[in-house]
């Protein structure tokens, strides 16, 4: 399974590992191996971490807490204390170590460090000045959250190549049906 990184925040990208949240959910982190692959694809680590079933369960709890916290920030709702605790516990762990190696950038750490890095990014987003830029993709059935950094803050889709293209093509087809 290919992972998508279009949210503009690694914490939201972790939350985006569930597709179609209000319909037939698609979980991209179904196994410990999926989570290990995600940490590499996200660019958090250079080497695949060891991931147990318990590690996966903790990561999924973090993922859901990030989603709910980002949704609360987006809608102006209060943060759930249990979600804040889940996020803060993950963020309190030392993040990924970034070093300049002989051949360039090196990212070192274990799964906990990778999840800490994602949790810290999410905390900075939902608790900081960019919280008001969190949006949800308007393309049905997508439920991905993203940071709208467009010039006019009018971005409607998580990704123009995927959801945006499908929405525009559907609108074009719908216009064609009404003119004939």
Automatic annotation (TrEMBL):
Q: Which domain of life is it from?
A: Bacteria
What sequence ranges are listed for the domain Zinc finger CGNR? 134-175
One Pfam family cited in the UniProt record for this chain: zf-CGNR
Q: Which SUPFAM superfamilies match?
A: Jann2411-like
Q: What is this protein called?
A: ABATE domain-containing protein
């Amino acid at each position: 399974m290919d992972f998508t990184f279009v949210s503009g925040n690694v914490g939201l990208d972790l939350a985006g590992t569930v597709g179609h949240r209000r319909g037939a959910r698609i979980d991209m982190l179904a196994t410990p191996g999926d989570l290990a692959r995600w940490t590499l694809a996200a660019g958090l680590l250079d080497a695949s971490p060891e991931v147990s079933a318990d590690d996966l369960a903790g990561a999924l709890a973090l993922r859901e807490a990030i989603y709910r916290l980002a949704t609360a920030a987006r809608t102006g709702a209060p943060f759930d204390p249990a979600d804040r605790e889940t996020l803060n516990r993950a963020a309190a762990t030392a993040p990924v170590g970034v070093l300049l190696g002989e051949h360039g950038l090196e990212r070192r750490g274990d799964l906990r460090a990778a999840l800490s890095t994602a949790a810290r990014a999410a905390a900075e987003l939902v608790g900081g000045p960019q919280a008001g830029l969190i949006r949800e993709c308007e393309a049905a059935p997508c439920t991905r959250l993203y940071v709208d950094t467009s010039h006019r803050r009018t971005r409607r889709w998580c990704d123009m190549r995927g959801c945006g293209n499908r929405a525009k093509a559907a609108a074009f087809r719908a216009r064609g049906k009404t003119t004939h």
